[in-house]
Here is the input.
Amino acid sequence: MAVRIWDRLLDRETRAPSGRGTLGRLIFVPGTRALSLNGVPARPGRFLATDNAWTLWDGTARRSTQGEFGHAPVPAGITAHAVVSIGRRLAALIEEGAPADRWLDETPLMGGADMDDRLATRRIDEQIALRLPHLRAACHRPVTRLRTVYEVVPASRARRITPRAVVRLAAHSEDWAGLRPDSVRPARLLDPGRETHLDFYENRVLARLVDHLWEYVHTRLVEVGQIEAMLDDIGLYARDASERPWRVSHYMFHLIEGLVRNDERRERVRQVQEDLGRLHNILVELRGPMILPGVHRRVDVGVTLRATNVFANDDRYRNVAELWRAWVAVRGGTERDGESADRSEAWCHAFTQYTALLLLQAFAQLDLLSDGPFLPGGPPLPLGEGIDLTWTSTDTFVVARDGRAVLRVVPIPHSLTASRRSEQVAEEIDALTAAKGMSPRTLVVYPGQRAERTDLPLPLRLRAFQGCDAPAPVAGAPLLPVSPLEIDSVTRLARSLRHALVQGLVDDYPAVIACPAEYARTIAEGVDWLAAAPDGLRMLRPPAPHELATARRRIDKLGVTTAQFMQRGGNADLIERLGTDLSAAADRMAAFLRCPLCRAVSADPARTLRLRDDETFTSTCDMCDTVWELRRCGSCDNRYPVLRADDSDESHVFDGDEIDRRFGSETLSARCWTRPTVSYCPHCGVCGEAAKLITTCQRCPAAPPAHITTTA
Here is the structure.
């Protein structure tokens, strides 16, 4: 089938990818090229995805390109299992065309059933428990063989003279003690001896099995530790819920209600950790330098064991062979061609579906709900207040307000921080954030966990976790890590959505009404919510009904008065358009009366929204007393919304994880680390406080240009 390659991040076609790439960034769409990936014909809707290296053959151009994804891009173990499990359930909803409200019944966290499945005893666990004594006995008392070794010894110690010793003696006169008429009296001779030999096939299999089992047990311990950390996070969340915004806590409790108190599961986690810990200690002992000395532990012994007398006749090694086969069954050592690509493809689709669920849950946290159909490539999903969510055919998501896109959300299923190596993580992030000028603003969602971020240096950690509300000091596309093991994944996505929606609203402030300058001066005279401009009127705040009626009367009078002096026709069409445009602008401006947190609508525009210079304002909610402002950046001159902070000057490190804990989704722009009453600009990432050079900030160690000033 003819296809082309689509760059999901840049939202455009790309011709010939090669070299180091990002898993899930490229997808095949209908086109005119005959392409095959690793020998398998490409089809529309399939990702350019493999475990690592890939070869792309272009049958139309008759050439091939190669590339790879660096470190293993698919998260190992429990994260991938949870996402794929969630994706499998969501795929069933997509197939039956379930409405969006049905999706909200699914949790974006690793559910109790998934936890129990990962904690359950597996067949290999039973085999290890049954055959571990035989494995230990084989390691401590392995089968040995004797091999001949030669050593040069004094002649008095030589036990026998072999032809090889005679040949060497004839070639080494320094080993002669003296000459005889017909012979040589030797001083040293090459003496054959016997030594124990362990480095043969069966013992190599034994050593490799110990390493494989250690890796398996270590991975299981990490998984169980992640489950325990998630349960601890949930318990901590429940304990300190009073310190978090109550609206966020109320919503999040619905997600964790089945996991908050489950003593049986916690006891099961503790028991599994103890059992795996004991086994881990035994395997560490069996990997020690005194066990199987001289055995080549890294040699490739294949997957299928060879039939040997030792494996057949020695009871210890016979059990070792059975344990090896059990490990092969678990690890899928007989993987066929194409299964690697299929597994990566399934992961990419599952992560996209998981992101779709996160988006719906995040909008629900913002009190934006819908019961319409939500399908890939389907119609936009209306969420209320003129907001739509579209799932495109290239597996990206577009958030629009009043028909204008304000944010693209691109799920990139590449585990960018999994390596935990600073150089490699920086390289992965650079590859994604190099693109400039993406419109609308693009938010990249990728799989990542808190433990991976805490190992990174602070500047890199800020780049690895930057929402729309809190960009890193280094410019680039926002990167948002999500995980089914972190309860704040929904909250941090909701925070970025809230910022994008409010920013999309204030980008159109003030509303512009085109009209002649003399008309504008007459209509705006003595009115505080309208301002005259050379190109027409500026509506600075939503008018009250009586204020709008007064302006309409002024327009009508202007039409009647002007018509008396016009010689070539009247201005009825212009007056009618002005009235219509004024009403439409008032309707658009009415959105500024809605609180960005509680969604309540103010009934008194003049008191709610107070105007300031430079086309900015401050607004107070009648219901929850939330104060939000529109500020102007002194560096890039862009305007951005903020929620007014408290008056505390206490310094704090407001990185992404701390913003999750302190504010949840209830913030619009991140706060300065030295003065919380100051926010830094989400457009350029510059904090006005950095220009004062009063204090040293970990986030902004270098001062910006001198022209930058603090915006209040």
